[in-house]
Design a protein that fits this description.
Blueprint: E1 4-6, E2 15-18, E3 21-31, E4 41-48, E5 54-60, E6 64-66, E7 70-81, E8 84-89, E9 95-98, H1 100-103, E10 115-121, E11 124-129, E12 133-141, E13 154-159, E14 164-168, E15 176-180, E16 186-189
Antiparallel strand pairs: 1-6, 2-3, 3-4, 4-5, 7-8, 7-10, 8-9, 10-11, 12-13, 12-15, 13-14, 15-16
Length: 190
């Protein structure tokens, strides 16, 4: 049986279940009253892992949450079509389909064969976690100078997935670059 978590114990980046739905804590704030007999309250900024909605909610410090039946499994991206995005579980070799709303803006950085962490709730896929960096090929960019002298000068580059980022002037078409999945910025040559 899953353990219980006190509301006051919930910290940033923790997962918990409230009213049968899994949540991810984005921020936690404890308010302790100064008056005697006042109740300690915990304000949580939380994301619903099924709908992706984010909201704030206040709980009593003694409120209890269940630990969600969450599992992260490695999966490789296969392809996408009108019905969704298809991933192969690297442990069971099952194919899982995620809807576009479950993927979010990660769709811009997915390439065939990319290994991601698939989130499963009660055995069903509900989302994914991208690696910190992905390697993508530059498909279109303007020619730049070899040695511009200024390291902070950038130009636009379109990558193989269609996403556009800013890259240094020395990057040429056909080169592979590392892109941060968090900032969507250039992180170096691959």
């Amino acid at each position: 049986m899953a353990g219980l978590i006190d509301a006051i114990s919930v910290k940033r980046k923790m997962f918990f279940e409230h009213e049968g739905v899994p949540y991810h804590c984005l921020d936690a704030e404890v308010n302790t009253p100064t008056a005697r007999g006042g109740q300690t309250l915990v304000r949580l900024k939380m994301r619903n892992l099924l709908t992706r909605a984010v909201f704030d909610k206040t709980f009593k410090a003694s409120d209890k949450f269940k630990e969600p039946d969450l599992e992260m499994v490695p999966a490789s991206f296969l392809y996408s079509d009108a019905d969704g995005f298809y991933f192969m579980d690297q442990e069971t070799f099952e194919t899982h389909t995620l809807r576009e709303d479950m993927i979010g803006d990660a769709a811009d950085l997915l390439t065939e064969g990319l290994i991601v962490q698939l989130s499963k709730y009660n055995g069903n896929p509900i989302g994914l976690e991208m690696p910190t960096f992905v390697e993508l090929t530059v498909t279109q960019t303007e020619p730049g100078m070899r040695d511009s002298g200024a390291g902070s000068v950038t130009k636009a580059a379109t990558l193989e997935t269609g996403v556009e980022i800013r890259v240094p002037l020395f990057i040429k078409e056909g080169e592979k670059v590392k892109v941060s999945t968090e900032t969507r910025g250039f992180a170096g040559r691959a």
